[in-house]
Write a structure and sequence with these properties.
Belongs to the ABC transporter superfamily. By secondary structure, the chain is of the alpha/beta class. It contains twelve helices and twelve strands. It has an eight-stranded mixed beta sheet with strand order 6-7-8-3-9-10-12-11, with helices on both faces. A four-stranded antiparallel beta sheet has the order 2-1-4-5, with helices on one face. The two termini are 32 Å apart. The chain binds adenosine-5'-triphosphate.
């Protein structure tokens, strides 16, 4: 089966001037990323701040141009479009298919536009509808996300955070997308509102056959919504696995570190857990040789300092991990001796 989206050897390097003498420094925000997103699945991208999650989402949506590598989109069997090589003009029709939802709806919604115009804007930009049809599509998109019709003439500040996020989702939905990239879409919301938005996203996925790339630093949320998870560290994908497998039996030491940060009830266990996390995240412009995680890894050996491990299937898959010792090291899962996470049901 061909994936809806395939990312191959994607890299993104940022160059900038720094310091008193304006030296140019380069940051490899993404290094050789390989990923597939199957039609209808929710793939979560997780990792600490600065690991490249947003940059990856933006390169896929071509809000940023990748430095090298490819992003192939297959909307139907036998029809694959190489998004990364298209010009801005060639890309325009495909921008309807791949839409982003952002973390902070207040800063992504123009405060001077009324709800009707906010949701109509993508249709106008893409010249897809006008007059009565435009109105019907806007009202229908707002209906789908639970925003009442009497809200059409109001401004974003008149709404709560959750309602603003619903308007943001309506802006994505109005173009009938195939793939929605949700970048920390519920991170700014209270837990009870998070649950409502996550449930809305689930319903929309089923009703409209959507596929999600769900970027989040919150593993509790990811556990609730994702079918599969890709873990990023310092611009690399270090593990991909079905969600349940990843939480039960992580295969990369960094995934274990992330799982250890999940809230647990027993404070003595909490103290023990943090001992496992050593060191600071290295600076992207000064990436360690060998395995990018070796400076913080409790299993690191000489081989890890010398050779960069490839992302490879572990025991035949479906988990992939970039660790020389993934088959032999004993890592703790999220449920080993902790209460279940994910309280959104
Ligand atoms: N436009 C840019 N110019 C220079 N560096 C950038 C730019 N955008 C991102 N970066 C750098 O690239 C790295 C990855 O950033 P990115 O925002 O993708 O990470 P992230 O995992 O999404 O983090 P967060 O959760 O904090 O948003 C960071 O070191 C960041 O400072």
């Amino acid at each position: 089966m061909t994936a809806l989206l395939e990312v191959e050897n994607l890299t993104k390097t940022f160059s900038m001037r720094s310091g008193m003498f304006g030296d140019t420094i380069t940051l490899d925000a993404l290094v050789d990323i390989n990923l597939k997103v199957e039609k209808g699945e929710t793939l979560a991208i997780v990792g600490e701040s600065g690991c490249g999650k947003t940059t990856l989402g933006r390169c896929i949506a071509r809000a940023l141009d990748p430095t090298s590598g490819s992003v192939s989109y297959t909307p139907e069997p036998g029809k694959t479009i190489e998004l990364s090589s298209l010009s801005k003009r060639e890309l325009k029709p495909w921008r309807q298919d791949i839409r982003m939802i952002f973390q902070d709806p207040m800063s992504s919604l123009n405060p001077y536009m009324r709800v009707f115009d906010l949701v109509a804007e993508p249709l106008r930009i893409h010249k897809l509808a006008r007059g009565a049809e435009l109105e019907q599509r806007v009202v229908s998109a707002l209906d789908k996300v639970g925003i009442p019709r009497d809200a059409l003439q109001r401004f974003p500040h008149a709404f709560s955070g959750g309602q603003r996020q619903r308007i943001g989702i309506a802006r994505a939905l109005v173009l009938d997308p195939k793939l929605v990239i949700a970048d920390e879409a519920v991170s700014a919301l209270d837990v009870s509102i998070q649950a409502q938005i996550l449930n809305l996203l689930e319903d929309l996925k089923t009703d409209f056959g959507l596929t999600y790339l769900f970027i989040s630093h919150d593993l509790g949320v990811v556990n609730y919504i994702a079918d599969r998870v890709a873990v990023m560290y310092l611009g690399h994908v270090v593990e991909t696995a079905p969600t349940e497998a990843l939480f039960e039996r992580p295969r990369h030491p960094y995934t274990e570190v992330l799982l250890e940060a999940l809230p647990i009830a027993d404070p003595t266990r909490r103290a023990q857990r943090h001992e496992a996390v050593k060191g600071e995240i290295p600076f992207l412009g000064n990436r360690p040789k060998g395995c990018p995680f070796h400076t913080r890894c409790r299993f690191a050996e000489d081989k890890c300092r010398a050779e960069k491990p490839e992302l490879r299937p572990i025991n035949g898959g479906p988990t992939y991990a970039a660790c020389h010792f993934a088959e032999t090291i004993e890592l703790k899962g999220a449920y080993d001796d902790a209460p279940a996470t994910g309280t959104y049901a």
